Amino acid sequence: MTQFKYKTQEEKYNFISKQHGGYYRHDFTDHAYLYNLYFPPKNVFSHLKENIEDIVLNYPMAQNALAELIANLINQPIERIVVGNGAAEIIKILSGHLAKKIIVPVPSFNEYVNAAPDGKVVEFPLEFPSFQLDVDKFAEEAIKVGADMAVVVTPNNPTSLHVPKADLIRLAKKLEKNNCMLIIDESFLDFTADKESISLEQEIEKYPNMAILKSMSKAFGICGLRIGYLLTANLEFASSVRNEIHIWNINGFAEEFLRILPDYQNEFEESCQTVIKDRDIFYNQLCDIPNMKVFKPDANYIFCRLPDDALSGPEVTKRLFIEYNIYIKDSHGKTQPEADRYVRIASRTQEENSNLIEALLDVMYKKS
Predict the structure, then answer these.
(1) Same domain flag for 137 and 273
(2) Quick check: helix, strand or coil at residue 345?
(3) Domain termination site, one of 220, 246, 264
(4) Which of 231, 248, 264 delimits the end of a domain?
(5) Are residues 222 and 299 in the same domain?
């Protein structure tokens, strides 16, 4: 067994806080990463085990065949789809290779900004303290700076707030007149209360300057398989993204998962409803903490502003880990006002969420 380079819980925290995965090896409760705890079901793992020799010994399929598997899931033409090794691969292509200038509301998922070359990204501050996106001001700024690509994550990470469909349509139309592609990241949309009325996936053909990006890791609980896709009716744009992807970018396990996923759609929908139920109970528990500002979540995580007399976000995060072996994310390093006052907490099971509440109440006000 691998020996990790920490001897104390504090050393363990310092090690973990610099990692981007592999958490399961370190024995703590992960309220930081954002995924569906209730999917996939055991039968999926049994199927992968039974077919492991073929999966390991043979080349996986290439892009067109993979796009067909996604197309069957979302009822879209194959030519509109690009399949990525996680959404992160596609984000790197969009921000790092295709965009001449990209504009991103902040705070948001850092990778859109991190993947862009110096001088090629504009950060647009969300309205404070509501963290709502004013799409008219966003469009105005995008046009002013000459952006050819704009990103909206809905529900947003870390705020867990979704942008109304009508606002996104208005934004797309404003940007279209200025030859700006709108990238809508719907990675967490399966955890919204009414995703069919919020998603633009089935209306994509109406908006030639729109592309929808989705990480399947979050909703389907398959972070280790690395699957994401981009959907657009702009076939020229789809082709430009596809041309940046190498021939075997998806491994055989991910391919096989996509192949059998249609057989588990009912279980998937039920799992999302369980996540929503747990999250809503958790939200109400967090709201009971005096002077805590809790943003009503649309995703499977909750954004909170700590009380003024509580410790800072980084201090609370560290104490939770050292004293209770629970890991959350603070907003230190995010582009936002008062970043050190905010934390993002992933919802887990009801029991784990209740344990988090007790631990949080215990550490929030401790002084050194």
Answers:
(1) no
(2) strand
(3) 264
(4) 264
(5) no
Cα(149)–Cα(187) distance, integer angstroms:
18
Q: Is 215 strand, coil or helix?
A: strand
Q: Can you give the CATH number for the domain in which 113 is found?
A: 3.40.640.10
Structure token pair of residue 53: 């020799």
> Measuring CA to CA, which residue among 359, 348, 366, 358 is closest to residue 30?
348
Between the alpha carbon of residue 93 and those of residues 21, 117, 172, 189, 349, the distances in Å are 22, 11, 21, 22, 35
Structural domain harbouring 110: 44-264
Q: Using one digit for the tens of pLDDT, what is the confidence trace for 10-33?
A: 999 999 999 999 999 999 999 999
Distance between CA atoms of 129 and 107, rounded to whole angstroms?
12
Query: Coil, helix or strand for 149?
Result: strand
The C-alpha atoms of residue 49 and residue 56 are separated, in whole angstroms, by 11
Q: In 288-312, which residue ranges form alpha helices assigned H by DSSP?
A: none
pLDDT tens sequence across 78-122: 999 999 999 999 999 999 999 999 999 999 999 999 999 999 999
315 and 233 within one domain = no
pTM above 0.70, yes or no: yes
